[in-house]
Design a protein that fits this description.
By secondary structure, this protein is an alpha/beta fold. It contains 13 helices and 14 strands. A hairpin with a 2-residue loop joins strand 10 and strand 11. Helix 2 packs across helix 12, helix 6 packs antiparallel against helix 13 and helix 10 crosses helix 13. The longest helix has 21 residues. The chain is globular, with a radius of gyration of 21 Å. The chain binds nicotinamide-adenine-dinucleotide. The site of nicotinamide-adenine-dinucleotide has 23 residues, from strand 1 and helix 8.
Length: 392
C-alpha cells in the first residue's frame, strides 16, 4: 500500500447524504473521511427539505453548487462533472438507508453506509447482490471494530492465543432513553427514532445492538448461529424496544451472552466485550478503548496499550498518536474510511488488495438476520436459527 495514494493521483471524492449542522453522527463521518487525506467530502444532501439542504451545505463550507436538494439531483449532477464523486456516505434516518444505497450503487458509486444497513434481511441481501454485481464497495460504519485494540483482540483469537473460543460476552449499555423521552419535546432526531416505522425492527438493535453483535462476531471470528432472546422495554409502558438480552450460540458451538439497552439510568455509553477461550480471556471496553486486558490461565494479567512496541505494525498503524494520548471513535471511523479508499484505489489501479478489515455489507446482512432472529425468538419464546446469506 506504500505510495498508493500518490499512484492513484488524488484523494477520493465523497458525497454526503445526511449529516446536516445539527446531526449527531454526520460530523464524525466528515472528520473521519478527511483525517488521513484519503477522501475529500465535496458534495452533499443534508436534509430532506431541499432548501434547507442547500443552505446547510453552504453554511458548512461546501460549494453551494454541490449542496444539492435531494439525492437524485446529486447523483445526476455529479455524474456530469469531470470531478464527480466516487462514493457516497449515508448517515440519514434508518428508513432511508436502503433506497439511498440502491440509488448510489446503481449509479456506479461505492458506499460507506451507516447502520442498520436496511429495514430487514431481505433488503440487506439485495444490497449484497447489487454490490457484488456492480463490483462496488459497501462498507458499514461499525466503528467499535475498527479500534486498534479490538483489532488486536481479533488477531489474538485468530492466532490461537486464547485457545478455542468457549464464551463471548458482549454488552452495550446506554442511558439516553432511561427517562420518558417520548413525553418530552421532540427534536428532529427523536421524531424519527421514536417512530418504529422509521427507526427499524427493534429500536435498540438498530441503534446499538447491531454494533454489539458485529463487534462480538468480528473479534471472535464467529457468526451467530442461533439465539433465544428477550426483546422489550425497561421503561414501563414504552412502545419502542429499549432492551434486548439474548443467549447466543455461535458457529462452531461457542456460547454467548448479549445485553443491550438504551434505558439504563447512569449507563451513559458503554460497550464491553469479553472473549474466553480454553487458555484465557480478553477484555475490552469503550471507556478505555486504547487498552486491552489479556489474562491467560495461571499467568499475571497484562494490560496491552495501543502503540506498544511489540504489537504488529498494522495494529500500531491503526492508531495515530503514542500510547497515553486519547484517541476515539473518530479515529476508528477514519480507519474504515482509509481502508475503503485503499481498496478502491488498489482495485482501480489493478493492484493486489491486501486483507482489509473494514465492515462490509455481508456483515450488515448477517446483523439484520440476527435482529430478525431475536425478534422471532421473543415471539415464539424459543431458540431461532439466524438465516444465512443466500448463495450468490
Ligand atoms: N455508526 C455509529 O456509531 C452511529 C452513531 C449514531 C448514529 N448512527 C446512525 O446514523 C444515522 C443518523 O443518525 P443521527 O443520530 O446522526 O441522526 P440525526 O437525526 O442527528 O441526523 C440525521 C441527518 O440526516 C438528515 N436527513 C434526514 N432525512 C434526509 C434526507 N432524506 N436526505 C438527506 N438528509 C436527510 C437530517 O437533516 C440530519 O442532518 C442513523 O442511521 C443512525 O443509526 C450511527
Amino acid at each position: 500500500m506504500i505510495g498508493l495514494r500518490e499512484r492513484f493521483g488524488r484523494p477520493l471524492r465523497l458525497g454526503l447524504i445526511g449529516g446536516g449542522p445539527d446531526a449527531w453522527i454526520g460530523r464524525m463521518h466528515r472528520g473521519a473521511a478527511e483525517m488521513d487525506g484519503w477522501w475529500r467530502p465535496v458534495a452533499g444532501v443534508f436534509s430532506s427539505d431541499a432548501a434547507r439542504s442547500r443552505s446547510s451545505g453552504a453554511a458548512m463550507g461546501f460549494d453551494p453548487r454541490r449542496s444539492y436538494g435531494d439525492v437524485d439531483e446529486m447523483l445526476r449532477q455529479e455524474r456530469l462533472r469531470p470531478d464527480g464523486i466516487d462514493a457516497v456516505a449515508i448517515m440519514t434516518p434508518n428508513d432511508t438507508h436502503y433506497r439511498f444505497a440502491v440509488a448510489a450503487l446503481d449509479a456506479g458509486l461505492d458506499v460507506v453506509g451507516d447502520k442498520p444497513v436496511t429495514h430487514d434481511f431481505r433488503e440487506a441481501c439485495d444490497l449484497v447482490a447489487r454490490t457484488r454485481r456492480g463490483g462496488r464497495i459497501y462498507a458499514v460504519a461499525h466503528g467499535y471494530s475498527a479500534y486498534p485494540m479490538t483489532r488486536y483482540a481479533r488477531r489474538l483469537v485468530r492466532d490461537g492465543v486464547l485457545g478455542p473460543v468457549r464464551l463471548v460476552q458482549v454488552e452495550y449499555i446506554q442511558s439516553g432513553m432511561a427517562t420518558r423521552v417520548e413525553e418530552g419535546p421532540r427534536n428532529n432526531r427523536f421524531r424519527w427514532i421514536l417512530d418504529p416505522q422509521r427507526s427499524g425492527l427493534a429500536l435498540v438493535m438498530s441503534a446499538i445492538g447491531c454494533h454489539a453483535q458485529h463487534l462480538a462476531s468480528f473479534a471472535s471470528g464467529l457468526g451467530v448461529a442461533r439465539v433465544v432472546a428477550d426483546v422489550g422495554a425497561l421503561v414501563p409502558g414504552r412502545k419502542v424496544v429499549d432492551y434486548v438480552s439474548a443467549l447466543l450460540e455461535f458457529d462452531g458451538g461457542a456460547r454467548g451472552t448479549f445485553t443491550v439497552t438504551q434505558a439504563a439510568a447512569g449507563g451513559e455509553n458503554d460497550i464491553r466485550l469479553r472473549i474466553y477461550g480454553d487458555k484465557g480471556m480478553l477484555d475490552w471496553w469503550h471507556r478505555e478503548p486504547s487498552y486491552l486486558r489479556l489474562a491467560l490461565q495461571g499467568e499475571a494479567a497484562r494490560i496491552i496499550g495501543r502503540s506498544d512496541a511489540f504489537l504488529p505494525p498494522e495494529i500500531i498503524a491503526a492508531g495515530r498518536s503514542p500510547r497515553g494520548h486519547p484517541e476515539g471513535l473518530r479515529e476508528a471511523f477514519a480507519n474504515i474510511y482509509a481502508e475503503v479508499a485503499q481498496d478502491r484505489m488498489a482495485r482501480n489501479l489493478g493492484e493486489p488488495v491486501p486483507e482489509l478489515l473494514y465492515p462490509r455489507i455481508e456483515d450488515g446482512a448477517h446483523t439484520m438476520a440476527f435482529i430478525e432472529a431475536c425478534v422471532a425468538s421473543h415471539a415464539t419464546r424459543a431458540w431461532v436459527d439466524v438465516a444465512g446469506l443466500p448463495a450468490q
